[in-house]
Amino acid sequence: MEPASATVHITFRPEGREGVVAVGSYLADAARRFGVRFEGACEPENGIHFCSVVVSGGAENMSALTSLEAAYFSSLDRKTDERLS
Hints:
Blueprint: E1 7-12, E2 17-22, H1 27-33, E3 42-43, E4 48-49, E5 52-54, H2 67-74, E6 82-84
Antiparallel strand pairs: 1-2, 3-4, 5-6
């Protein structure tokens, strides 16, 4: 018998979209899956990040900040729970 894969419940607010995703899923993939649309494009090479999200719970399931996130948020007043999806 194969072990069940780990899952986590995710909610996108204010859209109210929620569901279950596999642990390790990218936030952007989960957002697309649940029909969440960001205000604009995310263009990391141009420093444009409309894909910023606030994680209100479950941050312990997330990976460490990437170098891109660290560079982007270093110039801003980043909230502890803010990430790029």
